Amino acid sequence: MPDCLFCRLAAGEVPASIVYEDAQLVAFKDITPQAPTHVLIIPRRHIATLNDLGAGDEALVGEMTRRAAAIAKEQGLAERGYRVVFNCNADAGQTVFHIHMHLLGGRRLGWPPG
Ligand code: AMP
Ligand code: ZN
């Protein structure tokens, strides 16, 4: 997906403030942070939305979730709390069509979300 922003970011073609990367995942600071900690965790492989996850993707999503928890812990958020969110399609406000888990924390987060 050469025209996908997050594929290009994962390939190093778009600058990013990367906080973690491995063979499968990249985590980087959101360019428009909505909380003191706002990190996006993405798979290197292009998957457009949550609706496009396949039967073999359980481990990938599990690794994304565990990585979010590890980054939250590194940032001192584990005890006070944090939130992880996937937005899917228009009603949720998805703007980049390469799945990304938002990790938000460092302030009191409202519920329900807007
Ligand atoms: P969503 O609305 O769930 O699709 O979230 C997309 C997120 O990507 C937004 O929070 C944007 O601020 C963020 N974003 C867009 N472009 C970049 C970029 N080049 N680097 C980091 N974050 C970005
Ligand atoms: Zn992509």
Features:
alpha+beta; 24% helix; binds adenosine monophosphate; binds zinc ion; five-stranded antiparallel sheet; HIT family, subunit A
Please give the order of strands in the largest beta sheet: 1-2-3-5-4
Helix content: 10-25%
Indicate the low-confidence ranges by residue numbers.
Answer: none
Intertermini distance: 31 Å
Tell me the β content: 15-25%
In DSSP terms (H or I, runs of 4 or more residues), the helix count works out at 3
Q: Write the CATH homologous superfamily.
A: HIT-like
Number of strands: 5
Find the structural class using helix and strand composition.
Answer: alpha+beta
The largest sheet, given as strand count, sense and whether it forms a barrel, is: 5 strands, antiparallel
Mean pLDDT: 97
Bound molecules: adenosine monophosphate, zinc ion
Q: What is the CATH topology classification name?
A: HIT family, subunit A
Total domains: 1
The gross shape turns out to be globular
Per CATH, which architecture?
A: 2-Layer Sandwich
CATH class: Alpha Beta
The arrangement of helices and strands along the chain is HEEEHEHE
Radius of gyration: 14 Å
Structure, described:
The chain has 114 residues and is an alpha+beta fold. The protein has a single domain (5-105), classed as 2-Layer Sandwich (HIT family, subunit A). It is 24% helix and 22% strand. It contains three helices and five strands. The protein has helices spanning 5-10, 58-74, 89-92; strands at residues 18-21, 25-29, 37-43, 82-85, 101-105. It has a five-stranded antiparallel sheet with strand order 1-2-3-5-4, with helices on one face. The longest helix is centred in the middle third of the chain and has 17 residues, at 58-74. The radius of gyration is 14 Å and the shape is globular. The mean pLDDT is 97. The site of adenosine monophosphate has 13 residues, from loops.
